[in-house]
Amino acid sequence: MIVPSPRTLNPDTVPTGLRAWRPRYRLGRSRLRDAQKSGAGVPAYLRWVNRGLGRQAAAVAYTLGLTPGAVTAASALVSLAAIVVLVTAPLPGTWAVLASVLLLVGYALDSADGQLARLTGTASRAGEWLDHVVDAVRLPLLHAALAWALIRIDAPAWSVAVALAFAVLASSWFFSQTLAEKLAPPERSASDAPAWVSFVKLPYDTGTLYLLVIALIWLPAFLVLYTALFAGTLVVAAGSLRRKYRMLAEQPAP
Length: 254
Fold this sequence. Notes:
This protein has a single domain (19-184, 194-249), classed as Four Helix Bundle (Hemerythrin (Met), subunit A) (Up-down Bundle), CATH 1.20.120.1760. It has helices at residues 21-33, 44-64, 68-88, 95-120, 125-152, 157-183, 195-200, 206-212, 219-249. The protein contains nine helices and no strands. GO terms for molecular function: phosphotransferase activity, for other substituted phosphate groups. This is Phosphatidylglycerophosphate synthase. Keywords: Membrane, Transferase, Transmembrane, Transmembrane helix.
């Protein structure tokens, strides 16, 4: 079978069905490659790893004829499976690896839904809202699950407090960022930001947190890394909130 080049395929004439999966996948991947957002100023894992994984997942979803909403639902379910592992599996131990992998898969699918929406021209306010709802629940729920896991394994009380504080921080920061985007004009574009900025932002990249879950194999390492991540995120969030407040204070009253 001769498979046409993706650049010669017309999306309206690409056949459907299982026998046509290869040309549809190649078409989707090619079009997605040409329609990526700028990565300047984006945290390193999200920029160079997660968006690439999301692109592959979006191409597969396009091949299967899935909707962006279905991909969002899959992202939520996979992330929920990771939460279930954390609150039920024996820890510390190798179950942490499974939880981390599931979280990273859910994160990739979280990138894929938006890419699929742009690819198929089905982006909508409802889809964006649903994506934000899932994001708003996922991180606080993860930290709450980690708090419960720490309680189950008799970790120090202060570590449970850190996890609960992290849940509050994640929720409040996400909400404040989202609201600020609605109340104020966009900030200066980071399109010219050098690559090193992405690495500076790596510590509070969501992917870093998901990778850190693997450290639950050995509790002392997890406690050190998780606490350091919380402290760093707290400092960055405080600076971000201060900047957003000053920016909004300069805006005229509604």
